[in-house]
Every structure is written in structure tokens, then in C-alpha cells.
Amino acid sequence: MKKTTFSPLFWPVSLNRNTIYVLDESLLPERLAYIRVKNYEQACTVIRQMKTRAFGQVLLLFYAFLLVIRQNKGRHSQVTVLKKVAQAFNATRPTLPFKFLTDMILGWAAQDLLLETMILGFLEVLQSSRIQQARQVADFIKDEETILTHCNVSGLMPLIGQFCQQDGHRVSFFVTETRPYLQGMRLTAWELQGAGFEVTVVCDGAAGHLMAGGLVDKVIVGADQLAQNGDVANKIGTLSLAVLARHFNIPFYVLCPPASQAATGKDIKIEIRPEKELLEFQGKRIAPTGVKGLYPGFDITPAELITKHIHMEL
Amino acid sequence: MKKTTFSPLFWPVSLNRNTIYVLDESLLPERLAYIRVKNYEQACTVIRQMKTRAFGQVLLLFYAFLLVIRQNKGRHSQVTVLKKVAQAFNATRPTLPFKFLTDMILGWAAQDLLLETMILGFLEVLQSSRIQQARQVADFIKDEETILTHCNVSGLMPLIGQFCQQDGHRVSFFVTETRPYLQGMRLTAWELQGAGFEVTVVCDGAAGHLMAGGLVDKVIVGADQLAQNGDVANKIGTLSLAVLARHFNIPFYVLCPPASQAATGKDIKIEIRPEKELLEFQGKRIAPTGVKGLYPGFDITPAELITKHIHMEL
Questions:
Q1: Third-level CATH fold of B13-127
Q2: Among B276, B279, B291, B295, the residue to mutate for chain A (most A Cβ within 10 A)
Q3: What is the mean pLDDT of each run of 10 residues along chain B (314 residues)?
Q4: ipTM value > 0.85
Q5: Which of A73, A126, B26, B215 has the fewest CB atoms lying closer than 10 Å?
Q6: Quick one: DSSP state of residue A184?
Q7: B266 φ, ψ to 5°?
Q8: Domain locations in chain B?
Q9: Residue from A178, A199, A224, A239 whose CB has the most chain B CBs within 10 Å, to mutate
């Protein structure tokens, strides 16, 4: 059996001594570079600046807590400090369920558990769960099928491809460019091509045309948040793909994080990003002067449009 | 009653003596400039370069014929020349039904009709038909409704808005940016804002989210080609909007050109544009090196997804 290799996006954050290294996704694919983070305030800034996205942000949160724990070892005030750190992370972005994660860490701390060991153990389980997710969804892919994906699932897509290959199944990929940040074009296409897969970029509006032409066998996307009832929040454009997949009878799979405390999608707050992220491109305005933009970062796909949730086994 | 004003896009081509003036849509919204066209070969080049789009291309074709007719007045070889011109236009782009138009002109020529008078008369009828289309669709819009549109319908959208206002109905607009050429962001939003309407640009993938949130009352788009059975070819992304509108029970109106000879949408050839139009932005590559792109310029929306075709009365 071939050795599995990982995309740099599969585990985009690491901790080495007192420095966290965060893959700067905003520089990809032109440059593979890491941002050094020395404290939790810097970590929060990196998140706000979208230098790393969904999964990278989760990893960064855990590593930032590890850093704080090491810096405050033995101090009586540790729990107070951890609460402050939790608040800072909770305030960074509304869509990601940071509170779920910070509550978990604070819960461990309150129970006087070996916090560092707990976090490191959790990250290890997280890693093997992600590999399991890729393995699980690969089971649904048949030989010569074409997968359509949107945005970026942090290294899972090339891993899915590799598992398909190990099963003797040739797969190819359509990737939506994913406006306005172009994560599909710039991250997913890059990592799939780097792993040797056949990958074709299309504009977001082309998904219907591809499906109508029988060119898509499966749609696989990730999720930024999973509600208790199975609704998911994911990158803007996901809902459109789910509706199209249903219309054209194409299976729609979602690689899910652990469920958040939101009961349904209606309880998930959709983050409205600054309009300039839509109206400017690489710092230059592309929209007519004075025209307004609306950029909801995410949309909600209701559970009934999802053929199968691929859950994490944590 | 307020005077109706026209967007520069409503009639983007004109003929003055021996020069055709073509609005260079590729420079909008930064610059309002016209390309001078002196012969039909230059006209074909302007079309291939997409300096003007659907409706502008139709106008340019007629004015180029007028030019040729004036230049060849009284010559015995006129019909031979006109056939050559027709062939040149037919070869420029597969999606637009140029053959339908050139056949019509050649038909007039074969019947020894006063060709110049016929063409000028046809253009006059074309203009009043377009105004009628805007008037007709405005009848469906109620007070305080929000219209979602895609790409650009050559000046019809501000006209629809003005007719709504004349009816005492306030309307606002969502415009998809329309990747990769951004005609929605750069043309439609520009002309709507210029006409004083409230207009908000969203990325193409946001349409589902807006509809799910009840923010869209009507979808109105144009069509590059209408088949005999009511299927339409229009800018890539239109099919996705039609499927979404059906899913969310939102009326979907199409402003149609005269029907072409295609029996159904299956008989319409979809033009595949050069991949660099997708993978580059303003001349600079934005996709990872070596990654392929697929850019179908149009998609087919089946008649059954269209609530109402707004036909031209020619």
C-alpha cells in the first residue's frame, strides 16, 4: 500500500517551544510561508485577518492555550488567565464555534486535569479523526468518478483522492474558484494538483452547468459549523451547490466538525465580512465608485439537502 | 410622468457617417469610451475581443452591414459582398444567433428590398420592443420589492426600475458580480447606481443565501439565445439562479431575444472561452501554476424553470 502524504493544509499550525507556526494561507499558492505567533493576542489577530481559516483557526486556538498554560505554569491565577484567553477567542469570529472549544478547555481546567496532556491528547484524536473522515467518504467514490468541491477542506480533499487511489479508483476533481477569496482556486486546486490529481477550476456559477451535463458524480464540501439538527454553516455558495445537487440528483456529502450548541441552522449567526473584501481585489477597487456590497461569509445548508454527514469520531 | 432616461448600455452602438461607435464595455465603469469601427473586419474583431456583448454585438452587426451597403452602393457584386460579411459574422461566436440575423439581412437583399431602409426600420422596431419589454416586466413588480439580477441586460434593468418608479413602486436591486468578467458588478451595478437606484453587489455564490433569507422577491435575467421550445442560453450562472429560484419559490423572468432556429437548448452550442479569462485577473495569473480551468461562457436554462418569458414584439 502506498504511503499517505499530507497537504500542508492538513495540519497548518504547529507549536515548537514557545512559538506557534501558522501557515499563511493568504500567500498561497505563490508562497509557502509560516507566521510566528508568540502569544494569544497575536493568535487572535491572525484569526481576524483570515491568515488561516476554519480548521487552522481551531488548531491555533489549542496551541495558543498550550502556550498560555506553559507560560503560567504553577500560578494560582491560571484559571483566570485561561478565562481571559477564552473570551478573546470567542470574540474573534461569530461563525466558528470557538465557545464550544473554549468551554471544553475551561471545563478541563476546572476539573484540575492535566491540561497540557488533555489538549495534546485531544489534538492527536482530532488528527486521526480527520484521516478517518477522508477514509469514510472515499468509500462512496467509484472508479472514474468526478468530485465537485467548494472552498477548502484543509487538506482533506487530496487525502480523499489518495484513499480512492488506494482502492484502485481513479478520481478527478472540479473545484469552484470560491469568490471572493478564491480558496478553491488558490488552495484546493493547488493542493490537489500538488498531490498529482486531475483538477479543473470553474467559476462558482458554473456548477449548475456541469451538473446538468452529467459531469459531476459527487459533491463533497466541508463545514464551519454543524448544528444539533444536522444543518451546517459553510463558505458562502455551499447552499447553492446543495440545492443544485438535489435538483440534479447528485449525492451531497459534508465533512463535519463536532456539533456545536446551535440547535438548528437558524441559531447560527452568519458573519458579514467587510464589503471591501468583495469590492476590492488585491487591494485595488474593482467595483464602481459608491456601489455597495454585501458579503455574508457563510450560508446555512439545511440537513435535508445533505445526502450524508461525515462526522468526526472524537 | 417623469422623462425616461437611458443607460449608455441601452443602445451601446451607433453609426455616424462612415464610422461606427462602439461603447467599450471592457473599460467600464472606470472610463466611458467608444471604439471607432471603419469596416466589418474591425467589427468582427471587436466582437471576438468581447469589447461589446450580446445586444451590442447585434447592433454592431446591423451597423456593419449598413456600412458595407453604403460602401458598395450600386455595385453588381453587392450580394456577394454581403454574403462574405455574413460568413465573417457567423464565424465570430457560436452562442449568439448571428446566422438568424445574417440570414434575415441576406433574405431582404435577395428580394431587392431597400436594404438600408429595412435595416434602419428594423433597428427602430428593435428599440421600441426593448422599451416594451422593460415596461412589461415592470408590471410584475410590486412596491418595495427586491430584484436579483445576473450579468447585464444592456440597459434594460435601469429602465425596468424607472417604469416601477413611474408606477409608484420603490424597488431595490441585488446584482451578482458575475465572474469571471464581472459584468454584474461593473456594468449593471454601475448603470443602476447611475440611475439613482439602491443596488447591492453580492458574489455569485450568495444568491441561495439571499433567497433563503427572504431577501429576493423576483429574479430577472436576460438571454443570449432563445430556443424554439423556450429554453434559453445566458451567461454562465443563470441556470443555478433558476434552480435556486424554483427551490425557494421565487418568480424567475427572462427578457428574451427573438427565438433562434435551435429547437431546444440541447441544439445550442455552448461556447468554451479561453481558460485564461478565468485563471487570470487583469492580465495577471491568479490560479496556481499549471492548474487547468474550464470556462463555459453560457449555460442552458430549461423552459420549465422560467416563470415567464418576456418576449420581444418585433
A1: Four Helix Bundle (Hemerythrin (Met), subunit A) (1.20.120)
A2: B291
A3: 81 95 93 96 94 91 95 81 95 79 91 88 95 97 98 96 97 98 95 96 98 98 96 98 98 94 94 95 92 97 98 87
A4: yes
A5: A73
A6: I
A7: -60, -25
A8: 13-127, 136-310
A9: A239
